[in-house]
Design a protein that fits this description.
about 5% helix, about 60% strand, mainly beta
Length: about 220
């Protein structure tokens, strides 16, 4: 089991089942590893069944450093292959507060906010924050464009979550943006706030969901 005080330094592999609506469409494996004073977080989604007709999988990778209890993004990579191919590659230059976007097209964003974080490391930031007692989070993330997506998430209480890894008491934290998209994380205190359930609802009402199946500490 994770220790709340040392969670950020624990190296782990977490496995999830991936659902689209009520249909299981694949699996996700997330790994945290350490290389010197930097951390590497990866997320690999593998489709199964009919989902293979539309996607060959999604790979996300981020590299970050811990700085005074904060997560400092260094690099972010996203690759989707299938019916629609898409690649995103970001590099953060904090000495000049700049974001270098290599893909989908080469450009630079200057004067990024100090609370900017990449899409994958963001979930690690939430886990660390909950472990230290935070109840709300705000900041900026960049996706495909040079305009940041401003987010605000708040703790919505504790709930019992039924997962393939067992029934867990988890803190629910989430957001609803102006376009009606919902995003919720359920983070279990017994696992030092590792996400055990993740849900995302689109404007069309489609629901994507991840449920924890197992966790291994290396």
């Amino acid at each position: 089991m994770f220790s709340v005080s040392t969670w950020a330094k624990d190296i782990y592999t977490a496995n999830y089942e991936l659902y689209w609506g009520s249909m299981k469409v694949g699996t996700v494996e997330r790994k945290l590893s350490q290389n010197g004073d930097t951390y590497n977080l990866s997320s690999i989604a593998k489709p199964q069944g009919l989902a293979k007709l539309f996607s060959k999988g999604i790979v996300e990778k981020s590299r970050f450093r811990l700085n005074g209890g904060k997560v400092l993004s260094l690099e972010y990579y996203y690759e989707q292959r299938g019916k629609e191919d898409r690649t995103i590659k970001h590099r953060y230059q904090w000495s000049t507060n700049a974001l270098n976007i290599d893909k989908p097209q080469k450009m630079t964003v200057n004067n990024i906010a100090a609370n900017t974080i990449d899409l994958l490391s963001f979930q690690h930031l939430v886990s660390m924050g909950l472990a230290s007692g935070k109840t709300d989070f705000s900041g900026s993330v960049y996706k495909k464009s040079t305009e940041p997506d401003l987010y605000t998430l708040k703790v919505k209480g504790k709930e019992k979550v039924d997962t393939p890894a067992g029934k867990l008491v988890a803190t629910r934290i989430g957001r609803t943006n102006a376009k009606g998209k919902n995003f919720n994380l359920w983070c279990a205190e017994s696992l030092s706030y590792l996400p055990v359930k993740i849900e995302y609802t689109t404007r069309k009402g489609d629901l994507a969901r991840m449920l924890l199946t197992k966790v291994k500490i290396h």
